[in-house]
Amino acid sequence: MLGIASRMATALVHRGPDDSGVWMDPASGVALSFRRLSIVDLSAEGHQPMQSATGRFTMVFNGEVYNHRYLRQELAAVGCSFRGHSDTEVILAAFERWGIERSVRRFIGMFAFAIWDAERRELSLVRDRLGIKPLYVYRGPSLVSFGSELKALFAGPEFDCGLDTGALTSYLRYLYVPAPCSIFANVIKLPAGTILTIADPARELPDPVPFWSVDRAAISGSANRFTGTDAEAVTELETLLTDAVKLRMQADVPLGALLSGGIDSSTVVALMQASADRPVKTFTIGFDQHDFDEAAHARAIAKYLGTDHTELHLTGSDALAVVPRLAQMFDEPLADPSQIPTFLVCELARHDVTVALTGDGGDELFAGYNRYISGERLITEFQRYPSVLRRLSATGVRSLSPRAWNEVRDILRPIFPIAGRTRLVGEKLHKIADLLRADSMPHMYRSLLSVWQNPEQLLADTEKGVARATTQFDDTPLDLMERMMLADQKTYLPDDLLAKVDRASMAVSLEARVPILDHRVVEFSWTLPRRLKVRAGIGKWILRQVLYNHVPPSLVDREKMGFSVPLERWLAGPLRSWAGDLLLSNSANAFLNADAVRREWDRFLNGNREKAAGLWALVMFRAWENRWLTTSVPAVRTLRSAAG
Question: Does the predicted TM-score (pTM) go above 0.85?
Fold first, then answer.
């Protein structure tokens, strides 16, 4: 059992290259192993697994509890003593004093805990409120194993590689697998903000118990709206964000920030620089393709704020070189193409720092996506018309390809300049056509998020392709825009964006911290009335005002570009042979419908580029399948002993 636990930790050496440890209790059949990226208390006093003072609790812990210094003072005042100054030791003391659930309610941070309670003979698994840190749980016969990535479970005492075809369908629709499902039938992702307590591994896993939920935050916030003035709201948000940033600047290693030049990352960097006594290290990558290059904007922000800025200009070949590494990095399929630039900027930052703050979360909290505004308007308007009329309109829109619509835009540009201001107009019109075909409000929003409208048709066994996870577009007292935002905070944010940042940063042993997703900021955001988020059809109004306190509006007010890569050009050009070989190989028939895949690939090569993102999902799945199902592991591996 000791060797198995050690092997599981070794599979995650990239997440913790500085130290390792294994603890086991043979009588209980429990083993905990750990890889450490040393951030706070670099000494041996921060070594894990770590036991509490009485020996009752033994824990491994991924992440950071940022308010540990304040909790330490409170615990010391009631008699607790400490050997070192790590947050891990404070967490264990809190468990001794207050119990696990009461303690985690008081933690500000990102974390995934595994705690063995020797007194109650229970294992508790805990994940932070927003799902910033990952935690996978495998359930086998009389066995439970867990880890920060699936790689650890592959190396465990047993692993059944049977796929969840419903999860695969969801992946093809959304480009990620929504929790609590994973790509494997016998593995779950522990939902954000929950505690899973296991007393008997021979029984079915109990339901995780929430200690916080974004649903409750949303409902409570909407019932207790902020009633102050606009200026008071801006001041309150800046105060909260400043404290969140300061807490996340605590580290015993070099620290910096990833700067894209957009509203979110610029706000984080501005608040960091305002709180720092020296220039903050900032990092940006630039691309040789203008449509995907924000380096000049980031450079202007860095110059104005006076940061110590590093910019690396990359060619398309540099980005393409990352593609073969993605299946190893993302051991659960993820097809968000921004995973490539995210990895590259993390790799750049890691040369100089061990911790980097990011701006993730601003769009989801403060209505930054166009779909919240235009999508709400379209859904509300379209619901007024009979479904027959909507379908006829959709057919008319789809009578021209996205490429043809873009050519129409270019023809009209000299006559109607406003026609040229919308990028990817053809793709957006086809999205509207999909929305017109949907038969309900939740389905309309799902259509906006779907890269494949009927992904089950791409599976070899279409009858098993029923998705088990949805957008979680629940019936709540919130308005339509807020329901969209809530759905994204529950699924898209943790399962796509945060998973992408976690895997990309941890692949190079960089800890990424997300101050905008401090749960206090999230809770405050839900109290804000609509006018503080959206004005004149533009989102993130209040966040912009915070930034304007530090940076001139002229430096940041521009059309949202996004952080991605030219998928269409790559798949039709330098990646064409590689992608085609993956999609059309004989081994592709196990899970995908070969005829359907070939048909979509041929349509793409013949000039219909509408489905570039969907084809990328198919290609990434096939690359993942080759790496994890056909070359490395048998379908079922069993070594009969228990481990955690």
Answer: yes
